[in-house]
Amino acid sequence: MSSSPVTLRSEGAIGVLHIDNPPVNALSPATVQGLIDGLAAFEAKPELQALVLHCEGRTFVAGGDIAAFEDPAFSAAPFNSFLGRLEACGRPVIAAIHGTALGGGLELAMACHWRVATPTARVGLPEVKLGLIPGSLGTQRLPRLAGAELALDLMLSGRMLDAARARAAGIVDEISDLPPLQAALARAQALVNEKWAPRRTSALTVPPASLPDGLLDKALAQAKAKPQYPAHEAIVECVRAAATLPFAQGEQVEAQWFARVLRSGTSKAMRHLFFAERAAEKIPGLPKGLALRPVQKVGVLGAGTMGGGIAMCFINAGFETVLVEASAEALERGMATIRKNYDSTVSKGKLSAEERDRRLARLTPSLHDTDLGSCDIVIEAVFENMALKQQIAARLGQVCKPGAIIATNTSTLDVDAIAQASGRPADVLGTHFFSPANVMRLLEVVRGAQTAPDVLATVMGLAKRIGKVAAVSGVCYGFIGNRMAEVYMREAEFLLLEGATPGQIDKAIESLGLAMGPCRMLDMAGIDVGAKTVIEYEKAGGLPPDATYRVVVRKLFELGQFGQKTGAGYYRYEGRTPVANPETQATCAALAQQHGIARRGDITDAEIIERLIYSMVNEGARILEEGIAYRGSDIDVVWTAGYGFPDFQGGPMFLADERGLAHVVQRLDHYAATRGNPYGYWTVSPLLRRLASEGGRLSQYAG
Ligand code: COA
Question: What stretch of H or E contains 387?
């Protein structure tokens, strides 16, 4: 017999509606039904004088059940009418808030008559982060409680308020140090004793002073500038309805917008990423109850841009960190950069000077690698060169204490070869931080052939503690992200040889929502950096015997055209503005002639997108076949968190699924037929072909 996640019990003359739906008390259909039944039971017990809503476990209801939104039959109506009945109740209803009252959780609390919160509680309406809007009257009740301006800000940003701020804003009525249930029961009794008349949020009006002239119009204009995120416009219109229409009409406006955004591709993609990011944390096949290695003290070797950024990640998260460099000048330079970064954050008002000082106090600069001996993990972030990395690994193998984890920060190199050099490969793995390491969300964690399971699990946990979104990659050239990026760049360059311009390629790719197309991106990262990667890749035997392979970037490198930093690359730069560079176009034409490549005038945006993105998707499928990535969704996480792939597209695997894998395969076959396939560029991955024929999805694939 299945028991309901919601029970009604009595504490003296007070009813307690108790929700227990781990892990976060999300409003699953069963929970909603339990609430409906629980309220009916309370209504049938007139001897109970008030009702308290209380949640078991770590948090008050943290939202609607995001998984339930995938059900085409999903409807918010049952919960919404429950909220109406709850609010209409003649006896006081008190929400006991602890943890995070988010989304449907805050909507539930706002339909109660009184909200008591623990000092550490937080509240918010983060639906926008899922491409949604609050669909259970949050857009109507929050402006009534907190005013239009703050409500708009909270719903458009999705940010949370802590209990003190929520109290100041009128969202919670009381903060109590008592355990939440006890606090709510005490308040319920007090309200009963004073014969308090329930105060209903829906009966309030939005304070006119909270709606400065032009606020909504300005917000609407900003929202319309981002049509890929329809939830923004929806939120503005719902707040307008809250401010101008009776509650019942506002409810209808919200319902219409909610239905629209729920069905949008944007929300579907963002919901996919919500679960993808959480799935990526999990390592399949780990022994049950595996103990993690304790990490308190962190060492970073190398105080360059990467090392400094990595050290900042750890001190920001409260770790004692040692930063080691070989020379005093390099160490001082690294420390100065770190200080400058913090000072700039302080001057923008985003960090207090005291907090900056606390963070810097956790950082110990050192010129002696023996100081790394007391660290629980050491991350080596020296120059990307195999011989150097192996030499350092050998040294760390000796210096680091037994059981310490040794991480090599690399974007391409063979982690197994580095691990071997350490003499203790089970303790070694790769970390691929993205630059600037203290800002970028992604961390690719590279599992070596001999990496111990507890080392991998510890580093995944650590990634979460420093606020990174992490995905595991096996060892291969470029790991998940750069290996796929290589294919994308390859096609961009072939198109340049065939006659497309950098502007045309970038425009087509940017139409998908990527902030920058491949040419602008490489100009910014540096043509020299890009070319050296290709040269290294060649040395490592990774390139096909194709004399035309990425000849453009190599030629520009030879010509000293390194991109933005030299004023010319794929583009010419006027200040920071890229303009067409006729010289590069002449270079491409000359290279094409040299290699016997016909120039065409009929390259369309569709071809550009298909050749760059579908070939990358095909490479992603190979990565899955080889077991380099555990899941298709991990690849989407890598691309959205680390490579600027738009979240509203859900990542390359999700995009391919949405366009249809059969269509993707058909286009790859088309290019094989029309362009020839001597180097296997267009050979469709067997996994992709199989999924296409079975109606499967790459983004749902787990090997
Ligand atoms: N619906 C369904 N599942 C949810 C959920 C929701 N609203 N919120 C969290 N979960 C699940 C996660 O998928 C995860 O499941 P898993 O352990 O199987 O991977 C688990 O709850 C824990 O979530 P996680 O994010 O890993 O924990 P956390 O402690 O870091 O953060 C929250 C907790 C509640 C702050 C965070 O999960 C969150 O922001 N959730 C979304 C809240 C939201 O958007 N609500 C509005 C929905 S309309």
Answer: helix 386-399
Quote the pLDDT of residue 630: 98
The catalytic residue among 47, 87, 107, 610 is 107
- For 557-596, give the DSSP string: HHTT--BGGGTBSSEEEETTEEEE-HHHHHHHHHHHHHTT
Residues having CB closer than 6 A to ligand 1 are: 23-24, 26, 62-67, 100, 102-104, 126-127, 130, 132, 278
Identify the residue whose C-alpha is closest to ligand 1 atom 28. Answer: 24
333 CB burial (10 A radius; 0-12, 13-18, 19+): middle
Q: Is 694 among the catalytic positions?
A: no
Residue 693's pLDDT is: 98
Where the chain has pLDDT below 70, the residues are 1-2
pLDDT digits (tens, 9 = 90+) for 197-256: 999 999 999 999 999 999 999 999 999 999 999 999 999 999 999 999 999 999 999 999
> Which residue's CA is minimally distant from atom 29 of ligand 1?
24
Within-domain flag for 274: no
Of 280, 652, 662, the closest CA to residue 483 belongs to 652
Nearest to 633 by CA among 660, 610, 661, 656: 656
Same domain, 582 and 498: yes
Atom 19 of ligand 1 has which residue's CA nearest to it? 278
Spacing of C-alpha 385 from chain mean position: 30
Co-location of 381 and 347 in the same domain: yes
Scan for tokens 């055209």, then name that residue. 561
pTM: 0.95
Q: Does residue 574 share a domain with residue 534?
A: yes
